[in-house]
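Dear support,

I submitted the protein below through the web form. The confirmation email said the job was done, but the results page showed an empty box. After a refresh the structure appeared. I'm attaching both so you can tell me whether what I see now is the final result or a partial one.
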Amino acid sequence: MNAPLLADERTTLGAVDDIDRHSPQPMYHQLKQHIIEHIATLGLKPGDVLPGEHRLCAQFGVSRTVVRQALLQLEHQGIIDRVKGKGTFVAHPKTPESLVHTLTGLYEEVTARGGRVRSEVRTQAFVPADDDIATALQLLPGDPVLMIERLRFVDGEPWSWTTTYLPERVGVLVEHADLRDQSLYALLATYDVRAVRGVRSAEASSADAEQGALLRVGEGKALLVLRSVGFDVDDHPMEYFIAYHRGDRSRFEFQLTATPSDLSTASLRHTGLD
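What the results page shows now:
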């Protein structure tokens, strides 16, 4: 049997014979598939240690370039995590979220798939709106807004740090509500306050010291930042929030649909009329 590769030396990921140098499939692709198959076969769990570059080179008889290509693709696919100075690990699966293209909140998104959301409410009080908040909510700077700052947990794990701002007319409805284990959207709906449209954006960011500590990822780690303004049936802004999501636990999914003009253009190109 070949020398084992995992840290506990009980298992092996493959042998030199497993790489077919006559196959039309690139060697890095073959190596990537071997790693995926053996993670499944061995029942490895998130956080389990995988072999590093040197051991994979020796085990499969391939160059470091081949190994790096395989690991890079696995990392991009969210199958492994590579931590500088520590090693390569089976990744925690990223949970798809549709929060960017729908008016769904995190609570509704997670409970719909059988998970549990809990919030640590750090702030729930009226504050004067700064310039950015006032612009988003179409208020004057200094107008009172209810600020709700929550550290959100999904199935017991820190997931996002969200700060929500509500104009006074909406904020007074939930100023004293217990938001630890319930949806803000569902609560507002009981007062017939609902978002019917919104503008949301997503961007990448790096955790600062405070964000890294709260989300338990460490300073400098990747975050996904979601910003949103929701409008009610009268087209008045009813909510503005900024949410920092852990980049190692979630990914945002987008639903795309071709517009009639897109289909018309595609048809013209197909017939050669353009």
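Response: this is the final, complete result; the empty box was a page-load delay. The longest strand covers residues 117-128.
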